[in-house]
Design goal:
The structure is a homodimer.
Chain A (H helix, E strand, L loop, with lengths): L5 E6 L3 E7 L2 H6 L7 E3 L2 H10 L4 E4 L2 H11 L4 E4 L6 H12 L3 E2 L11 E7 L5 E6 L13 H5 L1 E7 L6 H16 L3 E5 L3 H16 L5 E5 H8 L4 H8 L5 E5 L5 E5 L2 E5 L13 H14 L4 H15 L11 H7 L3
Parallel strand pairs in A: 1-5, 1-9, 2-7, 3-8, 5-6, 9-10, 10-11, 11-12
Antiparallel strand pairs in A: 2-4, 7-8, 12-13, 13-14
Helix pairs in contact in A: 3-10, 7-8, 8-9, 10-11
Chain lengths: ~325, ~325
């Protein structure tokens, strides 16, 4: 079997984020649930955009954000996800390639425009996301190059993209290819709404031993386990996956490796500005150290450092030099 | 004569900024002059974009940035400038309207795309700008509504837009309309390259008494006066305009009102991140207080507060609440 040439290949939504400040009254007026992600159609996206404040556009997408962090930490990465051939699609493609990530998925020449996520950031730094999936949800199964999947040490999958039919089929196929090639599969649960719709799928994958590394947050792991209480949820899921990670915002994060539990406190942040991307960058920091074979404590610490960086400014991609922050922390 | 219903109407470039971090080697490799603005054609813009780092998109344009600051400070404003009917054009139009600025210029349906400014920010926080003017430079004279010009207390003109023919004609016509209606005309010199090309035009306007308020920085005022030395330049130009303002970066700013000189120190900034928009926001703070009839010292102080806010983060539009910062400063 060939040695992997990429550290991580990810399949995820190819999205440009549009970030604006909003107050709680705006969320109430537009019936938005703080902290959640909802899918919106083109008309709702236009209506929300017309009403939201002046924005900041930054490339996003959960798995793509994680790759941005991994690439910043020096890992070799590839991304699979679809934009349309329009200005926002060019922005997304430019940004991910500028980070050194291999990205060769063709732009869609017809159909809906590039996905965008309208993000309202409230004064408490919480982000409330409204995603118009556009071209991203139509990622064709044909966009998967089996050689690229085989070429990566870890296949990283974004739960958000489990919802639309074609990408779900592509991801199932990617899991099979990766496992057959002896690669690891990492999966992030993404959000309560995908778990509500596809939690049984996810549990099937887990029970079948298809998932090596499972990323979650406190609410998601409880939704997946269908129990109330973080400890109960960890107790239910941890025995079924070799490596379970669950982030808990200001309470830090937990990893359970083959039954052994490790914890880390949240890294200090001078001012939390925008929590968008916290989980994505935690996954990046964790995986970067994990790929290097570091102990779990170090993986957790690097995850919390990367998450702390991304919540200190608007946008879900790192702005500061993550390698330098890692070195400062003596990791 | 009717009372003005707008405080400020501005004519300027309608641009989306694309901001990326770069090092000095990148500037050298691409023969870019640090701190300056250069116009680039579509091919050069594409080449630079392909080579620059991952970006952050934020609406920009010098006069439009000034209006963003004025609107944030509670003033009633209007903007005249042209985008194309594309995604970046929609971003620009959305953002300026979301600030409460009246913006009714039609989008161009053919011709080049919306203008973008590729901004490299070096670790010293200096910005180096490469502008593809696209649809912005084709602002037709017909886009000027004389009633809108007459409706504003102050007509604010961006020197950058003096370079292309059609907008220059539109601006000359706007000056005549404003003066006939008894309004004030404010002008910002923008950059050395426009002064090199049109400094004689600017001096003619000044000598003819067409300019009431002139904004400049240290380098620009010397270029206009064709002298070496800030004091020499101020001495040459101040007697010719009722109100001359010149910003001096960390050395603060100077205003000369009918021969009387006033100065202010730069407002403190915890960390200077990106100097893009410093002059634009200084003009906003100054004009906001000036329109309210405040003493020149207060105008200078509010200018320095607005400039300090905008250089503390990426992007040339204010992120913090300028009214709150003004109140905190007791102005």
């Amino acid at each position: 079997m060939n040695q992997p040439t990429l550290d991580v290949v990810a399949i995820g939504n190819a999205i440009v984020d549009v970030i604006a400040q909003a107050d709680d009254a705006f969320l109430a007026e537009h019936a938005l649930t703080k902290g959640a992600m909802q899918l919106v159609d083109a008309d709702t996206a236009d209506l929300l955009y017309d009403n939201m404040g002046a924005g900041l556009e930054v490339s996003g997408g959960s798995a793509a954000n994680t790759l941005a962090g991994l690439a910043a930490l020096g890992l070799k990465c590839g991304f699979i996800g679809q934009v349309a051939d329009d200005q926002l699609g060019q922005v997304f493609a430019h940004d991910i390639r500028a980070l050194g990530v291999t990205y060769t998925t063709d732009m869609a020449n017809d159909g809906p425009p590039t996905a965008r996520c309208l993000i309202m950031v409230t004064p408490d730094a919480q982000r409330t996301m409204n995603t118009f999936l556009g071209a991203s949800q139509n990622l064709p199964a044909a966009a998967l190059d089996p050689d690229v999947i085989r070429s990566a040490n870890i296949l990283y999958l974004e739960g958000y993209l489990w919802d639309p039919d074609e990408p779900r089929a592509a991801m199932r196929s990617a899991i099979a290819i990766a496992r057959e090639a002896g690669r690891k599969v990492a999966f992030t649960l993404s959000d309560g709404f995908v778990i509500a719709r596809h939690g049984d799928d996810f549990m099937d994958l887990i029970n079948q031993g298809q998932i090596d590394i499972l990323f979650s947050n406190e609410a998601e792991i409880q939704a997946l386990a269908k129990v109330d209480g973080f400890e109960e949820a960890i107790a239910a899921i941890a025995p079924k996956v070799p490596l379970l990670i669950s982030t808990r915002s200001e309470k830090g994060a937990v990893a359970v490796v083959n039954g052994v539990r490790h914890e880390v406190a949240a890294a200090p942040v001078t001012q939390v500005v925008d929590t968008t991307g916290a989980g994505d960058l935690f996954a990046a920091g964790f995986l970067a150290a994990h790929v290097e074979g570091k102990p779990v404590e170090e993986c957790l610490k690097l995850g919390s450092i990367a998450a702390a960086e991304v919540i200190s400014h608007y946008g879900a991609r790192p702005e500061a030099d993550l390698k330098a922050l890692r070195a400062q922390a003596g990791l």
